[in-house]
Amino acid sequence: MKSVSTSTVLSIAIVVVGFWWVFVLSDFVEARRPPLPPDYVDQDLALQGARLKNYSLGFDGLIADWYWMQALQYVGNKFVKSGANIDIEDLRPLNVRLLYPYLDNATTLDPQFMVAYSYGAVVLPSVDPEQAIKLAEKGIAANPGAWRLYQHLGFIYWRLGQYEKASEVYDAGYRISGESFMLALSASMKNKGGDRDTARMIYRQMYDSAQDSQTKDQAWRRLLEMDSLDERDGVRKALAGFKERHGRCASGWSELIPFLRRIELPHGLKFRFDKDGRMVDPSDAPYTFDPSRCDVLIDPKVSRVPVA
After folding, report:
1. Among 156, 157, 174, which Cα is nearest to 165's?
2. How far, in whole angstroms, is CA 97 from its chain's centroid?
């Protein structure tokens, strides 16, 4: 019995060390790989989670974590190499075609890997909508009582402009969770799925529930965008009032301030100005006032507010 036990332990140790060396050697080879042409297409993953699961000897969660970290590193490296200011909700310029396989492997090995489902709901819709829906539905099938997954799937359909489908999914999530905001989102999808207040509600819930920093930061930036859109609408009303009164555009903020005081912004927002008298956006960056266009603009070089 002792020799059998020792043999079993030794066999398991060899397999575990073997897996570890595979990961180490993979990183070693990746770090020393010669430069590739810019149009190089990422190679497919050699291993699939469904096959690996049968040989992981109880280390499914550990390997799932590895695939999750690889997914984040994969996207991060794409961002660094591009050098561009790319929105995490639209990764098409980065050609992240291996992102879904990484997330799929992670969630196959650990079907309760909620942060992977959440991340996929944010980044995959613009890359491949079918993959985004497939990953979210996979999560729901494995975790039928996890109502947050319905929130993620509803978000995907909302992003795709499929408001009726989003309403059905949010309603299904409400019936499981009893969360009133899910019922409110379901109703909003039917009446005003594409309006700003609905977007604000969705991103507020995303911000409150996000488990990874990238999703949380993206939700925060989108909330800043909603506030900025309301502010810019208010400024444009003031500009229209000034032009109606004086027959020309205001020459600067100082001329416009009396008209801004008459504007009541939604959600308790207030116009704010810096020490130099320039109006600032929700990220505290100065707006650009353009008298030639008689408009107020976001300066993407200094602002955290997304620019369409």
Report:
1. 157
2. 17
Fold of the 47-220 domain = 1.25.40
Element (H, E) at 161: none
How many other C-beta atoms lie within 10 A of the C-beta of residue 200? 19
pLDDT band at 294 (very low <50, low <70, confident <90, very high): very high
pLDDT value at residue 61: 82
* Mean pLDDT in residue range 5-11: 67
Domain assignments of the chain as residue spans, ordered by start: 47-220, 221-297
Check: CB of residue 182 under 8 Å from CB of residue 173: yes
Provide the β-strand partners of residue 289: 296
Q: Are strands 279-280 and 272-273 parallel, antiparallel or unpaired?
A: antiparallel
In Å, how far from its chain's centre is CA 153? 13
Q: How far is CA 247 from the centre of its chain?
A: 44
- Calculate the average pLDDT of the chain: 86
Instruction: State pLDDT tens for residues 197-246.
Output: 999 999 999 999 998 888 999 999 999 999 999 999 999 999 999 999 99
SS3 readout for 253-298 = HHHHHHHHCCCCCHHHCCCEECCCCCEECCCCCECEEECCCCEEEC
DSSP structure class, residue 303: -
Query: Does position 189 have pLDDT exceeding 90, yes or no?
Result: yes
